[in-house]
Amino acid sequence: MTQKVSVLIIEDEKSICDFVSKTLQAHDYKTTAVHSGKEGLAQLTSSLPDIVLLDLGLPDMDGMDIIRKTREWSSIPIIVISARTQEKEKVMALDSGADDYITKPFGTFELLARIRTAIRHNNRMVDSHVNSNRPYSAGGLKIDFEKRLVSVEGKEVHLTRVEYKIVSLLAQNSGKVLTYDSLINQVWGPYADDNNRILRVNMANIRRKLEANPGEPKYIFTELGIGYRMLEDESLA
Amino acid sequence: MKEKREQKKDYIKHMESKSREELEKNHRKNCGIALMVFVAVTFGAFAFHEISADPSLNIAMLYVLGLFIVARYTDGYIFGMLFAIGSVVSVNYYFTYPVQSLNFTLEGYQVTFVGMLVIAMITSAMTTNMKEQARALAEQEKQLMEAQKEKMRANLLRAVSHDLRTPLTGIIGSSNSYLEMEDTLDNEEKRQLVSHIKEDANWLLSMVENLLSVTRIDNETAQVTKSLEAIDEVVAASVVRFRKRFPDAEVKVSVPDNLIMIMMDAMLIEQVIINILQNAQFHAHSSRPTELVVEETEESVVVRIKDFGRGINTAKLKTIFDGDGYQEGENGKQDSYKGMGIGLSICRTIILAHGGEITASNHGEGAEFRFTLPKEKEE
Questions:
Q1: What is the ipTM of this complex?
Q2: What is the DSSP string of B245-296?
């Protein structure tokens, strides 16, 4: 018998709570729902869930504080639930340690995919040596991290050093959003210019090398105002 | 009730004290003008008196000029009159024989006196009239502007209440039917009701997102917060989001080979693209995939969205962005539900706030929407 994955839902809107709980239970997750930040923090420390769904607009405390407090002692994956227009809030949540976000209103499929991805990445962090050098493969795009080889539909693609670095970062976090700032930090270091123009230029070049039609990307998606997300690795999904 | 009256009284008192303050301020200003002109004119008169052998004509002219200026630049009659009396007295005292004493029995003196007063009166009356007219004109203009704003607000409100109420009626109706007749409906019928609810809810969502996007535009200055964005990323993200809502919609995208970065609010431009695509989806009945083309010119980027459907009614072309197309209902054909009531007018608002242009036209096989975004230097 496999152990069910436990999900803690911190959301004050009861109807959303109900719908999420029902959906997840139907897909074999164990759910606990709380309606305030205080209860959430208490549940987090007492029941140690495998993943947290967190609404940022809680009545009693700022969702951002919950993320920071949790990150002081744990790497439990946190998925933030937020409205569409609040990009700044999402970026702030991601930069303070949230793993991913999902925009209200969301569908079942999207929610399940995000949860799967977040759990998978968390597992990989635990046994990173085994997994980090596995090749990436999704819809015709293959990346061999050991040989530093990128190919589309069997044809090798030549990337510059920086371009390869960006692509491999996105691929190792496939299915997960990476913010502009975190990409810039990891590729150009902490003292890089704040201006993300250089990242945009590199991304434009990458898209033109990898995608058949850069106007309709298949592998790397832009999340406006937030960052980039790469198509989930097929062998892991 | 009592409290309200009390409040009103307070308010009136407040306004009264305010206007009294204003009046006092004006009074002081008028006093200042009259005194200054009087001193200046008297100085001038003394100067003439010193240099000229027979200065009386010049002195008289000087005082008349001063009188005219005072009457023109002060409010009401009183300062002009005072100046007239003052000048008659001072001329009498300083410049007519016997000098340094008052003598009102001089020949023809009454005529001068009356003449000065009449000049003061006529000029004051004229200026007062002029000021009154200018104020009335300004007032009128202000009222006109207010009326226009009011009309826009009313239009938006009507569009909102209409566009929101229609899908809500559908949602409530369908869910009521489901709950009341759960036992008698077969599965297919239940499915239909729920999918109607879903469709209407999605429509509501897009309406609300449109309205929310307007709040990102500054109310007073109609400005948006712009940052440098790659246009192909914005287009691609918009199409992805559009496809998520309409999985069977067909869109063909083509972007130029070089990277174009434009100052914009990406979320708003995304909203524009989605609105236009959605409009094509619901109205065009396109026979081929909608085409989205990005082009670059010297000073702007052009985004063209072309469908191959029935086109736009020529009579409607002109007003399509006005946001009141839904109330026409021509030929009794109420195409209003899912008519982009406010969607297209919001598109125009967004594009104008970016300093671009948006147009709609027919191209023979369907309709084409086209908008531009100006290139500008990074701030």
A1: 0.83
A2: H-TT--EEEE--SS--EEEE-HHHHHHHHHHHHHHIIIII--SS-EEEEEEE
Mutation site for A-interface testing, chosen from B232, B250, B260 by largest number of A Cβ within 10 Å? B232
Nearest residue in chain B measured CA to CA from A86: B267
Tell me if B373 sits within 8 A of B301, measured CB to CB: yes
Kindly give the confidence (pLDDT) of every residue in chain A, 237 residues in length, as a single tens digit, with 9 standing for 90 and above.
Answer: 468 889 999 998 888 899 899 999 999 999 999 999 899 999 999 989 999 999 988 888 888 899 999 999 888 999 999 876 678 888 999 988 899 999 888 888 889 999 998 988 887 665 555 556 778 888 889 999 888 889 999 899 999 999 999 999 999 888 889 999 899 989 988 887 767 788 888 999 999 999 988 888 999 999 988 999 999 888 765
How is residue B374 written in tokens?
């100006």
Query: pTM here?
Result: 0.69
Chain-chain contact of B253 with A216 (C-beta, under 8 angstroms)? yes
Give the model confidence (pLDDT) of B338-347 as tens digits. 555 678 888 8
Q: What is the DSSP letter of B92?
A: I
Q: Which residue has the tokens 């535009």?
A: B217
Residues of A whose CB is below 8 A from B270: 224
- Per domain, the residue ranges of chain B are 2-106, 148-214, 227-374
As to burial, measured by CB atoms within 10 angstroms (0-12 exposed, 13-18 middle, 19+ buried), residue B73 is middle
3-state secondary structure of B163: helix
Q: Which residue of B has its CA nearest to A212?
A: B254
Domain at B227-374, CATH class: alpha beta
The CATH code belonging to domain B148-214 is 1.10.287.130
Angle, helices B187-214/B343-353, rounded to nearest 10 degrees: 30
Report which of B162, B169, B163 is spatially closest to residue B197, judged by C-alpha positions: B169
Could you tell me the domains of chain A? 5-128 (3.40.50.2300), 133-230 (1.10.10.10)
